Amino acid sequence: MSNATPSLAGTRITSLLDANSFVEIGKSVTARSTDFNMTETKAPSDGVITGSGVIDGNLVYVYSQDASVLNGTVGEMHAKKISALYDLAMKTGAPVIGLVDCAGLRLQEATDALEAFGSIYLKQTLASGMIPQITAIFGTCGGGMAVVPALTDFTFMEAKKGKMFVNTPNALEGNHVDKCDTASADFQSQETGLIDGTGTEEEILGQIRQLVSLLPSNFEDNDSFVECADDLNRTCDDLAACAGDTSLALSRIADEGLFFETKKNYGKDVVTGFLRLNGATVGAVANRTEIYNEEGEKTEEFDGTISARGARKAAAFVKFCDAFDIPVLTLTNVTGFKATLCNEKMMAASIGEMVRAFADATVPKVNVVIGKAYGTAYVAMNSKSVGADLVYAWDSAEIGMMDASLAAKIMYPGADAASLNEKAAEYRNLQSGVESAAARGYVDTVIAPADTRKYVIGAFEMLFTKREDRPAKKHSAV
């Protein structure tokens, strides 16, 4: 970029991309409306900088809204520049990254702005599943603009200045911004499930760079591999100790210990994210019962069930992986479904979404049972019955209908404690033991926790050429 004093929008682009790689497109475009004295108002680039560049050598397209030009409002030409950028991205098969700082639609351009803005929605929808789409919110993202990140695959939000809303906090019945700031990064990341990461501007740009390096450029990209310098047969001796916080477990088995977690503040009982195994990107979904901070202190604890939010989070993630041919690894440790009034409102629908996502996915799918796997919650978590290609289980795992002691109480009501203990042990041996599941073919191999990395690498290597058809139809109806 040639400006002597680049705008904040331009600085964000140069900070995101590899040095000297940005090529601006449509620099001379400006607003064409003459209503309300618009001819007297300068609108360089119509308030949005668009162009292409590279991240770690990978082509990307970027648009960055300029709040110093008409407050970053979206006018007709502003929207058309973004739509044209999407056309280029779909033609060349490269991701689109939007850096949002926008005061909304430009009132002076009315229906011209609305019509052009609608084309952004259309292009995003057409691009979905074809190229990755990423949004970062650095300022205001309100009204119709808030739908833009909802139509992308990943969204990041500046922790202090970022504001995202369809209706402002003060416009909500019975609410005020001092009571609940529904536009804040904290609320959006914890309550809506749209935000993958928050932080400072520098941290967000770094997260986007890391994410882009893990993702394929498009749904046909088969070259998104890196050379693996890590030992493929490396044992993970401390892995069993990480069974509670599976974000740590996934980092232990990943190449070089790198795991990129998505939507980490939403549905925390389920972990989703990306890692590399033997240089190839793998998507991971895992149950979680504990969270530890960087100092090794336990900060949160869960009861081993799946929440409605966790299920929705898992479903959306698996759909993305399947669209871009990214293999899926699951770590299962679940005892049931979250039993609260709030969760029950969406539980059946959310679990249905998750089951459908796993069952519909035709990418390689590997499941490792690392703890308890009870009831239909176990079935929903990428079990062999819903389509997992290979299922491993740690030698300490338990797989069955429910906890053996509870099963004994139900089957033998009124029995004394000694009899219940005897029947529970019998049930555990015959029905809940991992060897029992393996004898029936529900588990392919029983493994030691330390050997998990080499087994899952071997599984995905074997499944690399997997091809699987589905019944002919347009798409699922729900």
From TrEMBL:
InterPro entries: AccD/PCCB, AcCoA_carboxyl_beta, ClpP/crotonase-like_dom_sf, COA_CT_C, COA_CT_N. Residues 1-234 form the CoA carboxyltransferase N-terminal domain. SUPFAM superfamilies: ClpP/crotonase (SSF52096). Residues 221-478 form the CoA carboxyltransferase C-terminal domain. PROSITE patterns: COA_CT_CTER, COA_CT_NTER. This is Acetyl-CoA carboxylase carboxyltransferase component.
